[in-house]
Amino acid sequence: DTGVSQDPRHKITKRGQNVTFRCDPISEHNRLYWYRQTLGQGPEFLTYFQNEAQLEKSRLLSDRFSAERPKGSFSTLEIQRTEQGDSAMYLCASSPWEGADEQYFGPGTRLTVT
Amino acid sequence: AQKVTQAQTEISVVEKEDVTLDCVYETRDTTYYLFWYKQPPSGELVFLIRRNSFDEQNEISGRYSWNFQKSTSSFNFTITASQVVDSAVYFCALSEASGNNNDMRFGAGTRLTVKP
Fold first, then answer.
1. CA–centroid distance for B92 within its chain
2. What proportions of chain B, in percent to the nearest 5, are helix, strand and coil?
3. Which of A14, A108, B47, B91 shows a CA-CA span of 20 to 30 A to B75?
4. Contact A101, A89 (CB under 8 A)
5. How far apart are CA B97 and CA B99, in angstroms?
6. Is the separation of the CB atoms in B65 and B58 below 8 Å?
7. Region label for B95, one of left (φ > 0), alpha (ψ between -120 and 50) or beta (otherwise)
8. Which residues in chain A are contacts of B4 at CB distance < 8 A?
9. A6-25 confidence digits (pLDDT tens)
10. Contact between B102 and A56 using a beta-carbon 8 Å cutoff
11. Which of B36, B37, B44 has the most A C-beta neighbours within 10 Å, making it the best mutation to test the interface with A?
């Protein structure tokens, strides 16, 4: 399967702990996006990468959030000092080139902060 | 600022009925892109269609059809002869061409339930 993959699929953590999620985009897609989706809402844009460069960050992305894509392939999203409000589905998507091309989404990582 | 409104929170139909999902958008850009995505119970968003602002032709793909009307800023989605497998949450999204055009703004979604 050559779709977008995310790991882990589910994560339960205690408030104050750090968590890290991984996203593997479709091979050769140079754009990678992170979104957050809460219950009953559509995905909200967090950040995106063009190859290894992080080109845009939403104001939703607080200082506790950091994302990397060190070699322009997979990406990680880390949340430090998690809060209950961070509980959500974190979605990764990739697209092949510039412009508003369709984005292909992974299955998401569901984070629960207790 | 871009905005997408899907006024229908939930729709329930019986199999074989036709159903239309509404999407209204707001943008100041003259060039923009509209999308529909399907999110089945498994959770993974599935791309359905992209339409750019210069192409107002309606599109039909099997049982799916889309009606884009710039005059009313709407991009509605119709499923003909609905099936149980169409049950999902459907999202309309907008991406503007100016700036970084990466801030794809999604509506809140419409949950469609098709009953047998």
1. 4
2. 5, 55, 40
3. A108
4. no
5. 7
6. yes
7. beta
8. 42
9. 999 999 999 999 999 999 99
10. yes
11. B44
Strands B10-14 and B110-115: parallel
What's the length of chain A? 114
CA B39/CA A90 separation, integer angstroms: 14
Which contacts qualify for B45-54: CB closer than 8 Å, 24 or more apart? B45/A43, B45/A91, B45/A93, B45/A105, B45/B91, B46/A105, B47/A102, B47/A103, B47/A104, B47/A105, B48/B77, B50/A100, B50/A101, B50/A102, B51/B75, B52/A100, B53/B29, B53/B97
Q: Which residue of B has its CA nearest to A103?
A: B47
**Option in B4, B100, B108 nearest A55 (CB):** B100
d(CA A81, CA A17): 5
pLDDT digits (tens, 9 = 90+) for B3-38: 999 999 999 999 999 999 999 999 988 889 999 999
